[in-house]
Amino acid sequence: MMSDAGERMLAAQEASQRPDFNGRVYSHASVYAYRSDGSGEPQVYQAVSESRAGPGGVRETRKALKDSRSREERIAVGHHIGGRGHTVERRRNTGTGQQQEDHHYDGIDESEGQQFDREWDRRAARIAFKGGARRRRRPPRRSLSAPSGHHGRQALKVTRLCGIC
């Protein structure tokens, strides 16, 4: 049964790449790992990946990562139309505070980036993607992690998933 569901999901994602595609596809995957031996800070690893696609090859991808062991936080948001795309990736080291932002372009030049972003916003609005410029201003995502001094899943509190998003 799982392989059948997986095959259908792959077929839907492949279909969403065709120019004549007239549907919508959404996928979400997340991983959360928590480890504590009781002596020191717990180790937390969180990763989230989302993708949504609509008619005309309009697609958005979102990936976030938080790793307390490496003290790394990352978030990447990609907007794509067919074979063209613009992805913004932000990284932060929570130990040093060092931050970095990179822009990756697929099928377009850097000079076409702003024009492409406007085109993506227009097309996304037409197919009712709740997002674009408005989504970029929303409050940060929240996730659960245990406060220091507590072990396992006791006394959970809300913390930010990614301090740079």
Automatic annotation (TrEMBL):
Q: Where is there biased composition of kind Basic and acidic residues?
A: 59-76, 115-124
The source's superkingdom equals: Eukaryota
Q: Does the keyword Phosphoprotein apply?
A: yes
Sequence segments annotated as region (Disordered): 35-153
Question: Where does it live in the cell?
Answer: Cytoplasm
Question: Which N-terminal stretch is annotated as signal sequence?
Answer: none
Report the InterPro entries cross-referenced here.
Myeloid_leukemia_factor (IPR019376)
**Alphabetized Pfam families for the sequence:** Mlf1IP (PF10248)
GO CC field:
cytoplasm
Comp. bias intervals (Basic residues): 132-141
Chief subcellular site? cytoplasm
The entry sums up its family as follows: Belongs to the MLF family.
Can you say what this protein is called? Tox-ART-HYD1 domain-containing protein
Native organism is Macrostomum lignano
